[in-house]
C-alpha cells in the first residue's frame, strides 16, 4: 500500500497573478486586500473563521507583538470549533489537489499563513 502523498499547500501574496498550478485559491485574510478587484483576485474560498481575530492582528502589529507569541495565540484561536471545522474543510481540499493560501501580508513567512500551512501539513 502506497503512503498518501503530503498535501501541496503553497502561500502566495494575493496581489501576485494567479498561476495554473495554484489549484484552489483560498484567501486567509480577514479584510479584503486594498486596491484589488474581486474579479482580479480569482479567490475560490474565503474562510474568515481561519483568520486571526481583529484583536490579535492589532496586538501583533503593535509595539509588543512577537511572532512566537502571535503563533501561540493564533493556534489557540484555531482550536475554536468554527476554525477547526474550516481547517478540516481545507484539509479536504488539499487531499483533492493543490491549495494556495493567499494573503496581503508583505512577509508571509512571518504571518498567520505559515501557522495555517503547518496545521494543514503543507
In short:
The chain is of the alpha/beta class and 122 residues long.
What is the count of β-strands? 3
* Strand residue percentage: 5-15%
Structural shape? globular
Tally the helices: 5
Q: Supply Rg.
A: 14 Å
Percent in helix? 25-40%
| Major sheet summary line | 3 strands, parallel
Mean pLDDT over the residues:
91
Termini separation (Å)?
Answer: 22 Å
Topology at a glance:
Layout (H helix, E strand, L loop, with lengths): L8 E5 L10 E4 L10 H4 L12 H7 L6 H12 L2 H16 L2 E5 L8 H9 L2
Parallel strand pairs: 1-3, 2-3
Characterize the structure shown.
This protein is α/β, with parallel strands linked by helices and 122 residues long. It contains five helices and three strands. It has a three-stranded parallel beta sheet. The two termini are 22 Å apart. The model has no long low-confidence stretch (mean pLDDT 91).
List keywords for this structure.
122 residues, alpha/beta, 5 helices, 3 strands, globular
Amino acid at each position: 500500500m502506497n503512503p498518501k502523498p503530503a498535501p501541496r499547500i503553497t502561500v502566495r501574496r494575493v496581489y501576485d497573478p494567479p498561476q495554473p498550478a495554484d489549484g484552489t485559491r483560498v484567501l486567509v485574510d480577514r479584510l479584503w486586500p486594498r486596491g484589488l478587484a474581486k474579479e482580479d483576485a480569482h479567490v475560490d474560498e474565503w474562510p474568515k473563521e481561519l483568520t486571526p481575530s481583529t484583536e490579535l492582528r492589532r496586538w501583533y502589529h503593535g509595539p509588543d507583538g512577537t511572532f512566537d507569541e502571535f503563533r501561540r495565540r493564533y493556534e489557540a484561536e484555531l482550536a475554536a470549533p468554527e476554525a477547526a471545522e474550516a481547517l478540516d474543510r481545507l484539509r479536504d481540499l488539499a487531499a483533492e489537489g493543490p491549495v494556495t493560501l493567499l494573503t496581503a501580508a508583505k512577509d508571509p513567512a512571518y504571518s498567520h499563513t505559515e501557522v495555517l500551512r503547518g496545521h494543514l501539513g503543507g
